[in-house]
Amino acid sequence: MDAPTLLHSLGTSNTVVNRNLEGINQRDSLVHPQPEGQTFNWILGHMVKTRNEILELIGKKSLY
Predict the structure, then answer these.
(1) Which residues of 42-58 are buried (b: 16+ CB within 10 A; e: fewer)?
(2) How large is the angle between the packed helices 3-20 and 40-57, nearest 10 degrees?
(3) Does the bond joining 35 to the residue before it have cis omega, within 30 degrees of 0?
(4) What is each CA distance from 14 to 20, 32, 44, 59, in whole angstroms?
(5) pTM, to two decimals
(6) pLDDT band at 57 (very low <50, low <70, confident <90, very high)
(7) What are 4-53's pLDDT values in tens digits?
(8) Cα(64)–Cα(52) distance, rounded to whole angstroms?
């Protein structure tokens, strides 16, 4: 996959994430779904880590 396609995919997934997080506050983001699952914070942390690795691979500035 080339860099423009990866960047487009990251942008699209960013839009989806933002739409799904509308109305979610910090407290809500720390709630563990029942009976199983991870918090929004945990999921987003892994997404940021992966996005950072992708950006570095294609020679772009990392998120942090």
Answers:
(1) eeeeeeeeebeebbeee
(2) 170
(3) yes
(4) 10, 22, 11, 19
(5) 0.75
(6) confident
(7) 898 899 899 999 999 999 999 999 999 999 999 999 999 999 999 998 98
(8) 8
Helices (H), the chain: 3-20, 26-29, 40-57
Residues 6+ apart with CB under 8 A from 54: 6, 10
Residue 51 identity: R
Q: In whole angstroms, what is the distance from residue 38 CA to residue 58 CA?
A: 29
SS3 of 61, please?
coil
